[in-house]
Known about the structure:
mainly alpha
Amino acid sequence: MVLNGMKHDTVSFVGVLSACATISAIKQGKEIHAFAVRRLFHEHLFVSNSLLDLNTKCERIDLSRKVFDSIENRDVASWNTMIFGYGMLGDLHTVIDMFEAMREDGVEHDSVSYIAVLSACSHGGLVDKGKKYFNDMLARNIEPSQMHYACMVDLRGRSGLMDEATNLITGLPFKPDSNVWAALLGACRLHGNVDLGSWAAVSSWVLCSSLKYLSRLVYNISAFWWPGPKRGANRDTVTRRGGPRGVPTVTNEDRSTRGAMTRSGALDLRGVP
């Protein structure tokens, strides 16, 4: 742009900082930050929020906090980015404190704010507090999304409340998506619940065009079912021999329409609360 005689604007800085955040290019991001300061673009809210996003994705919450504290008129995106950033680091108490401080700063929580705090409550085992926040969201007429329900399933499942998690799924006003089933699968692996985990795995399989992200978790669940030497011999699918009692099986027709449930790869739950 400079070589062509064009001047940078806010959109230029937001775009390049977003690109750096996507590839976790913290070194280049710092250079662009310094350049933005020299041109006084760092004072623009959109640029500041892009800097927050970059630093949190690069796990430099210390840099994010410096930028956050320098913003005069923070918006909901500023707060949400920081809450997610602390949540990624497992700093539960700071997540709760910042969530509560939003309103004191005159910023109302939105749908994303609740996803962030519910995810933190789930990972911290704060079941009652998570339920309170969910009810507070409903009272404020914020319609729960699939991700909110996935957080609530994870909240119950991680704490071993498998019946509550199952009842929540079966009582949903819409068909659960892969995020909800992945939350249940994670809880089943944690607690070794093969029957319920197989049900969740098959339900996820029906929804997903690719099972690569599910396969390792399915294998880990099946390890509880087939302990010892049999583990490797039965890793192709949890339901190969009909599955546990009461759990849907994978038929040849299912395989022809969705592809075989293959050897397990890893389920990355980082994108799931």
